[in-house]
């Protein structure tokens, strides 16, 4: 059944239709939450809160984006609220310790041709990338997860986070620089190992 029809039926009180919407989206939403909070128990709890909020607020869903994008927004907001409650004195969003391109060159951080979207698919570095993503401030983390891991477009990511597309691009660029610096030593080690085997 089409998503729009399921949403319409769910709004009319058909809980079975809402359950179908949940079934279609819950694995992606759980994956998002797990990457945002880094803890399966918190992710499961937030998943329940997310769908409870979605059900209570179905009348607010405008339908100008996919239902999953709307639920991504709810899930991300819940995760960010949880983070703020647990860490009220966190570093401000604009204070992310991301180096400039010049600083990267000065520090001798080598280039690597694997972007985060490709890297998350490779088993040997998935854990390293996930840990590096968890070191990002929450909104930068959300942008990377939505854009590079979940594969949302810039426009969809902006909708999910209720920010401009320009803000998505800026945060994504800075977050990728942070990840590049964080992961570069591992790529250098791997390159050294490969050269030593020749």
Describe this structure in words.
The protein is mainly alpha-helical. It folds into 2 domains: 3-86, Rna Polymerase Sigma Factor, Chain: A (Orthogonal Bundle), CATH 1.10.1740; 93-196, Arc Repressor Mutant, subunit A. Helices cover 73% and strands 0% of the residues. It is built from 10 helices and no strands. It has helices at residues 3-11, 15-37, 40-56, 67-86, 101-107, 116-119, 123-134, 138-149, 154-161, 165-196. Helix 3 crosses helix 4 (67-86) and helix 8 (138-149) runs antiparallel to helix 9. The radius of gyration is 19 Å and the shape is elongated.
Question: Helical segment tally?
Answer: 10
| Overall outline | elongated
What is the CATH superfamily classification of the largest domain?
A: Winged helix-like DNA-binding domain superfamily/Winged helix DNA-binding domain
Counted up, domains total 2
pLDDT averaged residue by residue: 81
* CATH architecture call of the largest domain: Orthogonal Bundle
Poorly predicted regions are: 91-95
Listing every helix as H and every strand as E from the N terminus to the C terminus, the arrangement reads HHHHHHHHHH
Structural class comes to: mainly alpha
Q: Looking at CATH, which topology of the largest domain would you report? A: Arc Repressor Mutant, subunit A
Could you describe the largest sheet, including whether it forms a barrel? none
Give the DSSP E fraction (strand runs of 2 or more residues).
under 5%
Measure the end-to-end span.
Answer: 56 Å
């Amino acid at each position: 059944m089409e998503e729009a029809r399921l949403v319409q039926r769910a709004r009319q009180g058909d809980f079975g239709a809402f359950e179908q919407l949940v079934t279609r989206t819950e694995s992606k939403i759980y994956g998002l939450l797990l990457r945002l909070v880094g803890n399966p128990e918190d992710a499961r709890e937030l998943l329940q809160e997310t769908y409870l909020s979605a059900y209570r607020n179905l009348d607010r869903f405008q339908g100008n984006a996919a239902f999953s994008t709307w639920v991504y927004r709810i899930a991300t907001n819940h995760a960010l609220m949880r983070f703020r409650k647990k860490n009220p004195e966190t570093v401000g969003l604009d204070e992310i310790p991301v180096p400039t391109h010049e600083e990267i060159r000065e520090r001798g951080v080598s280039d690597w041709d694997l972007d985060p979207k490709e890297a998350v698919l490779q088993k040997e570095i998935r854990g390293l990338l996930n840990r590096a993503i968890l070191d990002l401030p929450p909104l930068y983390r959300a942008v990377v997860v939505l854009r590079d891991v979940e594969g949302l477009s810039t426009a969809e990511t902006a909708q999910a986070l209720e920010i401009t597309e320009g803000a998505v691009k800026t945060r994504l660029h800075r977050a990728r620089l942070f990840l590049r610096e964080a992961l570069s030593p591992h790529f250098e080690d791997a390159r050294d190992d490969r050269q030593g085997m020749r």
